[in-house]
Amino acid sequence: MKVALFATCLVDTIVPQVARATATLLQRLGHEVVVPPTQACCGQMHVNTGYRREAVPIVANHVRAFTAAEAVVAPSGSCVASIHHQQAAVARRAGESALADEAEALAARTYELSQFLVDVLGVVDVGAYYPHRVTYHPTCHSLRLLRVGDRPLRLLRAVRGLDLVELPGAESCCGFGGTFAVKNADTSTAMLTDKMADVLSTHAEVCTAGDSSCLMHIGGGLSRLRSGTRTVHLAEILASTEENVSPTQTTAPAVPA
Amino acid sequence: MTTSADPTPLAPGAPRSGTTFLGLPTAPRGVGHLRGTQSFPDAARTSLRDGQLRANLGRATTTIRGKRAAVVAEVPHWEQLRQAGKALKAATMARLDEHLEELERQVTARGGTVHWARDAAEANRIVTELVRATGSDEVVKVKSMATQEIGLNEALEAAGIEAVETDLAELIVQLGEDSPSHILVPAIHKNRSEIREIFRRTIPGVDPGLTDEPRQLAMAARTHLRERFLRARVAVSGANFAVAETGTLAVVESEGNGRMCLTLPQTLVTVMGIEKVVPRWEDLGVFLQLLPRSSTGERMNPYTSLWAGVTPGDGPQDFHLVLLDNGRTAVLADEVGREALHCIRCSACLNVCPVYERAGGHAYGSVYPGPIGAVLSPQLTGVEDNASLPYASSLCGACYDVCPVAIDIPSILVHLRAEHVEAQPRPTAEAVAFRGLSRVMSNPRLWHLAQRAAGLGRFLARGRPTLPAALPPPASAWTRTRDLPTPPGRSFVQQWTEEHRR
After folding, report:
1. Name one GO biological process term (chain B) (predicted).
2. What is the C-alpha separation between B287 and B340, in angstroms, rounded?
3. Looking at chain B, which residue has its C-alpha nearest residue A45?
4. What is the extent of the structural domain holding B276?
C-alpha cells in the first residue's frame, strides 16, 4: 500500500525521529511511504486558541498537500482528531464549502498510527523488539475523540522484550492541552505533577504515548526532576528491532547536561 | 448593591450569533454572582497553593466519580437514555416561548402567580416585594442555583430580610461567610474538622464538645434548622424542572430539608431559570433517571417534591413562580453555545474535570464553576466579562463523556474562544503572532524557512539537549517547570525530501 506520512508540525520541527520511526515501521511492514514536501500543520492550534478564520488557509494547505494520497497516516491522535472533527467545520463556517468537502473526504482516509496498523493493515505484532519496562499514557484526544481504545496496548503487548506496566490514573489528562499549558501554566503544572507521580510509581524506564505534544510536556517535567524515566513515542518503540534498538531516542532527554 | 437593570444592546460583551449582532441583553453587572474579580489563571494560582483545599477536592471528586461510574454502568441503555435527554432538551429549546406560556397558563389556572424577570435585578426586586408583602423579615431557602446566580440573599439582606439556607452544605457555606465552590456540594472544599469549627463559632447554643463525627455535625445542624422551619412563614426555592402541560414544579434533594421548606410555610416563592421547563409530565421520566445517577451517584434521589399551584388546607396557600432570563435568551441566540442551556445541574462534569479538581470552584469566579460554568458564565455575562473562562480547560473531553444530556462542552469552549478573539476591537500581540503563523503555515516555502529558524535554538542550547530555562515570555511560562528539547537542525520533511530527490 502507498501511504502518505503526515509528520505534523510539532514532530517535524522538534522530534523528527518520531516521523522517521513511523516511516521505518511502515516500510518494514512492506508499504511504500511518501512524504508530501508541502505539508505543514493541521490547524488545530489555531482553532483551539480561537483563531478559526486564520486556520482556514492552513487547512487549505494541508488538503492541497495530501489531496493525491490514497491513505494518510500521522503519529498523533490529537492532529488526526483535528483533521476529523475540526478541518471541515472551520472551512464550512468560513463559507469555503468546496474546501470543506475536500477536507471531509481527506479525513475519511486519514488515520492515527495505531488505528492504521490494527484496523487498516490488520497487524498487531509488528515484529518489534524493545527490552524495557514501559508504561502507556492514553492521550485525551486519542482516547476520547478518536476512541483508539486498547489498540496501542495490543501493539505494545506484542513487542518482544517489552515489560508493559499499567499506569495508575491513566485516563487523567496530563495537563498539556496546547496553549492551555502556557495560558494556565500553574494549573497545567499541577496536573503534570500528579501525572508524573503516577508515571514514577510504575518504576517504568519509559513512558510512551501516541502524541509527541503530551510526551514533550510529561518528558519536559520528568527531565526537570532528573527522574531517569524518559518519554518515547509509540512509533519509536514499534520501529525498534533487535538489529536496531533505539532506547536512547527520546522526546525529551532524561538528564540535562 | 448597585443595579443596572436595563443593559443597552450596545453593552460591552453583548453576545453575537456568528457575525450577526442580535442585541439581546446579557446578565447585568453589579448584581449577582456570575463574574469574578480575578482572571481564572490568577485566581487558580492562589487556590493551587492551598494544599488542604487540593486534598479535600481530590478526595471528594474521586469518591463521587467512582460512585457515578458504578451506578451508570448498571443501566444497560444509558447511552440511549442520554441521547433521549439531549433530544428532549433540544426540542424544548426550539419552542421555549410556547412552553413557557403554557407553563404560565397552567400555574395560573392552579392558583399560582407567574412573574417574568428579565434579569437578576428585576428578579431580586420581585422576590423582595413578595416577601415584604407577607410582613415577614425572615425566609427559609431550598438550595437553589438560580437565587445564588442573582445574589438574592444579599438583596434580601439589604431590604432587612434574613435568608436562611437549609441545605446542609449550603448552610455550612453561609455560616462560614464563604461562597459555594461546587454546584451540588457547595462545601466540597471544607473537611469535617473545618465544618466543626464553623458550627462551634456560629450556631448559638451549640454543644461546645461537638466532635467532627458526621452524625454529631448533622444533629447540630438539624436542631438549628428545625426551629427555623417551624417558625418560617415564607420559603424561597429553586426548581429542577417545571412541567408545562400540568404547571407542576419539581425539586429533587437528598436531605428532606427542602421538603420542609416546600410544605410548611404559608407563602412559597420559586425562582427558576427559563431553561428548566419541560413540555410534558412524561419527560420527567427521562430526567429523573439521568439526574441522580450523574449527580450524587444514587439510583434515585431520596426526596422528589412535586407541586402545582395551591391546594386549600394543604401546603403553602400562596405560590409565586419567578421566571428568570438573566442572559438566557442571549445564550439561546447562539447556535453553538445554546446547548449549554440543556444543563440539568448534575455537576458530573465538575467531578471529572482535571482543571476543577486542582484549581477548585472559587477560581471560576461564578456560581457555576467547572466545565459547564466555563461555557455558561461567559455566555450569560457576555464573553468579555468572563474572557479567561473558555481557556480554563485542557480540552481533555472528560466532561462531554459524563454529561447526562451529552452537552459537547469542549466544542462550545473552542467556539467561545473564537468569539472572544473575534470580538477584540484591536489586534492583540497574540493575534498578530497567530496571523503571522497562519501565513507561514499555509506557505510551504515560508514554513521551511521558519523551521530552519527554529533550528537556531541550537545556538541558545549550546550543545545541551534542552533549551535554557531563562527564556522570554511566553516561553517562560513553559520553561518555569518543564524543559524544552533543543530543536534539531533540520526537519524530518526536509531531510526526507533531500534523501528522495529524483
Report:
1. lactate metabolic process
2. 16
3. B434
4. 77-326
**Residue carrying the nine cell digits 518482544:** A160
- What is the separation, in whole angstroms, between the first and last Cα of chain A? 43
Residue B373 lies in a domain: yes
B493 with A52: Cβ contact below 8 A: no
The reply to whether B112 and B254 lie within a common domain is: yes
Query: Rounded to whole angstroms, how far apart are CA atoms B276 and A166?
Result: 43
**Domain match, B301 and B400 both:** no
B272 with B378, same domain: the answer is no
Write the ipTM. 0.95
Residues B181 and B290 in one domain: yes
Is A184 in CB contact (< 8 Å) with chain B? yes
How confident is the model over A32-55, as pLDDT tens digits? 999 999 999 999 999 999 999 999
Q: What is the DSSP letter of B17?
A: E
pLDDT tens track for B271-312:
999 999 999 999 999 999 999 999 999 999 999 999 999 999
- Same domain? For B419 and B433 the reply is no
Residue that finishes a domain, picked among B423, B441, B461? B423
| Residue B22: how many other CB atoms lie within 10 Å | 15
A-chain residues near B434 (CB < 8 A): 46, 49, 51, 54
List beta partners, residue B304. B252
Q: What pTM does this model have?
A: 0.94
Cα–Cα distances (Å) from B1 to B30, B33, B124, in that order, read 7, 12, 11
B360-379 burial string, b = 16+ CB within 10 Å, else e? bbbbbbbbbbbbbbbbbbbb
Chain-chain contact of A12 with B45 (C-beta, under 8 angstroms): no
Residue B174, all three cell numbers? 453561609
Are residues B440 and B419 part of one domain? no
B150/B274 same-domain check: yes
